[in-house]
Amino acid sequence: MWSVPEDVSGFLRDMGNVDIVVGIPSFNNRDTIGFVAEVAACGIKSTGLSGLIVNADGKSSDGTADAFMKSKTEDVPKTSYSYIGPSGKGTAMKSVMEVSQMLNTKVVVFLDSDLRSVKPWWIERLAVPILEEKASYVAPLYLRHKYDGTITNTICYPLTSALYGIKIRQPIGGDFGLSAEIIQKILEKPADIWKSNVARFGIDIFMTTTALNESGRGVFQAALGAKVHDAKDPAKHLEGMFMQVVDTIFRLMITYEERWKQVFDINEAQIYGESPQENIAKMTIDENLLQKRAKHMVFEAAEKLEKYLPKELIEKVLQQGVISCEEWASVVFNSALVFKHRPSEQIIKNLIGFYFARVAGFVEETTGLSSEEAESVVDQQVDTFLNMKRRFVERW
Asked: Span 10-28, mean pLDDT?
């Protein structure tokens, strides 16, 4: 199903070809989207390329589209529309990819609409490896607070690295560069993909995993410095996103099983640019709430969990509300195996309590460490997942 409104399609047909499209998916981001658009325009102009800025909006009620259109992007054209299709970030990004195909665009750069730290040179960092034909896909590499990006730190980064053998530190970072090749491969996927969680927050991990497995020139990381955005406390805000992202990861494990079962070494994706020395925004998360919710959710699902998880691990969460990385990796791989034979939203939901317990465990392990020092703990998780995967392959 086409996701771009017909009146916008007519506008695009009159434009002719464009070198670069910057896509900004949004939903109620009035306060930040104008800034992101203006920075994007400066970034496009600095490359010397012809460009278009596209705001694909999810029917915001706060005037997001108006704020975008009133932004001062000088002579860089822009357009805003409410995309067609299931509500979600993935549908918004799909529509931008369709726009890029209409304009024969060389590269698409996606920027989150809640960014406060974006710089004009981010456009160059995310686009140039593709324009120079060194990469097909560019993921972001940020400096982040140790408690920012807990879904990334606990599962997306360690599991994706262990499965596909390439370290992508921010596989769901939100800001990406895509080649026409990768866009073509994504849009050629079966239409049912866009009825799944890929149409929502599953889109980032879907794009990254597709690129890791299907890109002709491989994947780069762009050093972007500190990321300042609307950070979320996991126990309060991230249940829905967790379910959409992990459901997508598990389904992709089934899709690419013949590839990841052969991978037992990990390399780091090449980094483009040097990360500037910038201050990392401070944030806190509610450790007590994490433990409380972990205990409650595991208690509620205990009868189902005992069918595929060790009873002593369930008891540990009920008593302590924290688990180690090794215990967490075991839960993830066991859940993925059950999901393979019986894909179910309930299996993903049953994981959430353990996710909260693992984040709480990470908080305990990194108390007193700086964000830079805590990175070593995050990296150790990759090795833990890889070692666990060796045993898991035999069971899959």
From this structure: 93
Shared domain for 234 and 303, answered yes or no, is no
> 16 is written with which tokens?
């002719």
* 218: number of Cβ within 10 Å: 15
DSSP state of 192: G
Place of tokens 């357009």: 79
Tell me how far apart the alpha carbons of residues 196 and 343 are, in angstroms, rounded to a whole number: 13
**H-helix or E-strand containing 283?**
none
Choose the final residue of a domain: 247, 272, 297.
272
pTM exceeding the 0.85 threshold for the entire prediction: yes
Which of 272, 303, 318 represents a domain boundary (last residue)?
272
Residue 232: pLDDT band (50, 70, 90) is low
State which residues form the domain around 354. 287-395
User: How many domains would you assign to the chain?
Assistant: 2
Q: What is the pLDDT of residues 300-332, one digit of tens each?
A: 999 999 999 999 999 999 999 999 999 999 999
CB burial of residue 322 (10 Å; 0-12, 13-18, 19+) = buried
**Claim to verify: residue 94 and residue 198 sit in the same structural domain:** yes
CA angle 277, 282, 287 (to 5 degrees): 135
Dump the DSSP string for 297-320.
Answer: HHHHHHHHHTTTS-HHHHHHHHHH
Residue 332 belongs to some domain of the structure:
yes
Please report, as a single letter, which amino acid is at residue 81.
Y
- Indicate if the pLDDT at residue 236 is higher than 70: no
Distance CA 173, CA 82 (A): 23
Q: Are residues 156 and 301 in the same domain?
A: no
Q: What are phi and psi of 56, to 5 degrees?
A: -100, 105
The pLDDT value recorded for residue 9 is: 84
Residue 165 has pLDDT above 90, yes or no: yes
Best CA proximity match to 207, nearest among 198, 220, 194, 196: 198
Average pLDDT, the chain: 95
DSSP for 222-250? EEEEE--S----HHHH-HHHHHHHHHHHH
* Buried/exposed code over 206-217 (b: 16+ C-beta within 10 A; e: otherwise): bbbbbbbbebeb
Tell me the average pLDDT across 232-247.
83
